[in-house]
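Rather than argue in generalities, we have chosen a single entry, letters for residues, whole numbers for local backbone shapes, without further comment.
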Amino acid sequence: MKIICIGRNYSEHAKELGNAIPDKPVIFMKPDTAVLKGNDFYIPEFSNDVHYELEVVVKISKGGKYIQKESANKHYEEIGLGIDFTARDLQSDLKSKGLPWELAKGFDGSAVVGNFFKKENYNLESLNFSLLKNKEKVQNGNSKDMIFSIDDIIAFVSQYFTLRVGDLIFTGTPEGVGKVSENDVLEAYLEDEKVLDIRIM
């Protein structure tokens, strides 16, 4: 199972981190060992600045290569929410040296994945999702603000990687990312339903 992640897919998030708005999807990956087991996230010892990034996640249900955008919707049946935990201090250091981000993005437990839901129950063109930290809303996103749609992403990614059943695609985070601290509680909502509840340890 591959975890394919899209960076800078919401213009306001790109701006808040001082990044240019991309003209093609920005891709990075996490290993399957990044998936968090349980509901407790432990801040790694190598970072003092871990950030939450709430994202819509797509689960691939039909594999393929060179998938056309017009048929991309046939390759997934379920969507959910996930959190891409990022060691921002480590990422900034790596970026300043022109090095890959994997150490800051792919560490154990850095990919929170919730339950998945049938896509036909939602309007994927205008899907609301939000994150609360200690009961305060910190991220509020809508899929209509994506620079690249889910189908755009699948078509683009499949030019380079064969997609297989069970692969996950994190589709990018809206503005409002921020630091987590010990004892924080994160709650994620898909429309009005709570789908994630994470404790920071």
In short: The chain has four helices and 14 strands. The CA atoms of residues 20 and 85 lie 21 Å apart. The two ends are 27 Å apart (CA to CA).
